[in-house]
Amino acid sequence: MISFIRQIKYEIRNIIRSKFLLIISVLLIAAAIVLPILNFIASKRPRDNYYGPYPMPIYETMSYRDDIDRPIYPGKPGMDKDSITIDGVTIKSDNPFFWDISYLIQEKEQLENNKERFTSPEALDLYLALLDTELQFSLNFAKNITNYQDYRASMKWMAQESMYGKFIFENIDVPEDVLLEAVSQRWYMEPEMLKSKYLDLTAEERLEALDALDVELASLMAILENNDFPQYVDLRIKQENKNIDNIHEQIAVQEQEIINNPSQEDMINQMILDLKRQITYSENNISLLQLRLEKNIIPGEDVWQNYALSDMENYRNQLSYTEILTEEKFNQETWLVQQHGSYSKYVVAIQKQIDALNNGIIIAEKSIDADKPDMKYVNGGSRSRTFQFLNYSIFVALFAALLGGWIMASEFQQGTIRLLMIRPKTRTKILMAKFTSALVICLFIYGFSSLLNIVTNGIFFGFSDYAFPNYTVSGEIGFFGYYLPKMLACTIPVIFIFAFAFMLSVVVKNVAVSIAVPIAAYIGSTIVTSILALTRSSSWFAYTPLPYLQLSTFFTQENTLYNPIYGYGNTMTLNITYGILLLLGLSVVCSAISILVFNRRDIVN
Q1: What are the tens digits of pLDDT across the range 198-247?
Q2: Among 306, 336, 485, 582, which residue's beta carbon has the most beta carbons within 10 A?
């Protein structure tokens, strides 16, 4: 055993003497340090985070949103491409309401030359008054909000309908046709709706409705001017509850329609199902709003909590639309049958998606509850950057193919194989010393580079991030306890590619072939896997080694076929444990073939 270890050391020194291999090894190791440095430099460059992370939803009314990007006419007083000045207030082009205000000003100016749009001067005058009201309304927001990340930006669209409603009540004595013509230019409204909601009310009902609108708008303005987040949350929750009540009323109407029109039951039931999903969406919003208030998580701020809450919202909404159909309905959907092939495979695939969505929600909830972020919510942190370095195993695997294909074939081509045979060692020991020494170098490069990368990321992006846990369904785990098993798993393709190239090196005795074939197979595996994953009859491919050759992508890439939420797992079920065992088994087979062939080969050159 000691002599075998000495032989391995001797072979390692021989490999290092090759300047070409030594240079590549040094470059690979240097990349582990250089990459974090480049990432750090890139992170310091100013970025145009124009819209910010996860702003609150913006509710738009049916008005002029398609027109707000019209160009500003040059040469107008108080207006240029960079700012607008109104009543002594300058609104810059990066203000969230710059284009809204620009359009309103242009609209007023265009009416000077296009008065024919209205059937009467009264309608034109009323429309101009509405523009002035809306312009002042937008200006109030522009004075208090200067960036798109501000959660209060959404209130303009929340309050827009109330602003129009108040304008209608304040001009209720205007003839109906004039009022409808003017208001419809900004907020489309059916004549029946104008009558039922505004005109046909009694004087007391109108006064009560106007008072309610005044209270609502005053509350919105107070939130806007005082930046009162708790009051904002309270307002949003009231709106969501009001929306839920309205939907319940719609459901009751539809249920009555089923009684009146039994033949339309299936279609109406689908409408009711969609309405119930809207209720679920509003209930999810309420729970998230309450959580925001409890944890004081301000929407729009660039904090990890907003990313976690966004995951919770998105995954919950996806769950509301993800269901396992009955076998009867499945067979009626031709595209589902074509995609999955059988109902049992369909059930497994959809259940896998549901489980993945629930797991994502659990991770987000645990992060928020513990006030410690999971790695996925700190994209620029040391953990996520170290985790992405798992992809470095791809380059080590290519180096392993190079080294494995060269180490024995070069001995045959150069004729030095005869010098190996004169040593007082068995052929198996000679071969295994070559095999082990080269494989040790590959694994050392990967392990040492990973260690350097961990340290370098900690230096540039903070060691404190490593102290946060990663979350799983069963609980939480320290980052290194989470990372190391995956790092070790990524060495398996390296071992297999090396063993395959080494086998070719012994069997073929040609350096070019022994290197080119495994590299081509390794690179081509990704292309072949992506193509076959889109075909219906590709389940057999999951039992081959090709999908598992780039094992790091199972861990580092979300939007791939390996991800049950986003990927093509419906047509191809991949199992990491199976893939690891398969590659290890094939590595042993390749090694056995290498020993068998080398022991029986006549060394004549």
Answers
A1: 999 999 999 999 999 999 899 999 999 999 999 999 989 988 998 999 99
A2: 306
Determine the Cα angle at 342 with ends 338 and 348, to 5°: 110
Task: Please tell me the pTM assigned to this model.
Answer: 0.77
Give dist(CA 489, CA 484) in Å, integer: 9
Residues 6+ apart with CB under 8 A from 167: 129, 130, 133, 183
3-state helix, strand, coil in the chain (%, to 5): 75, 5, 25
* Residue appearing with tokens 């109108």: 206
* Separation of alpha carbons 230 and 523, rounded Å: 54
One-letter amino acid for residue 543 of the chain: Y
Report the candidate in 440, 434, 436 with the shortest Cα–Cα distance to residue 396. 440
Tokens 């009310």 map to which residue? 201
Q: Residue 268: CB partners within 8 Å, gap ≥ 6?
A: 254, 257, 258, 261
Query: In 10 A of CB 467, how many CB atoms?
Result: 12
Q: What are phi and psi of 472, to 5 degrees?
A: -130, 175
577, two tokens: 């444990």
* Most confident region among 12-21, 77-86, 503-512 by mean pLDDT: 503-512
Give tens-digit pLDDT for 550-573: 899 888 875 444 454 444 444 567
Do residues 386 and 453 touch, judged by C-beta distance below 8 A?
yes
Query: What are the two backbone dihedrals, phi and then psi, of residue 394, each rounded to the nearest 5 degrees?
Result: -60, -45
> Can you point out the beta strands (E) in 249-365?
none
| Among 307, 449, 379, CA closest to 43 | 379
In degrees and rounded to multiples of 5, residue 83 shows phi and psi of: -160, 165
Strands (E), 334-381: none
**Residue with structure tokens 């927001």?**
141
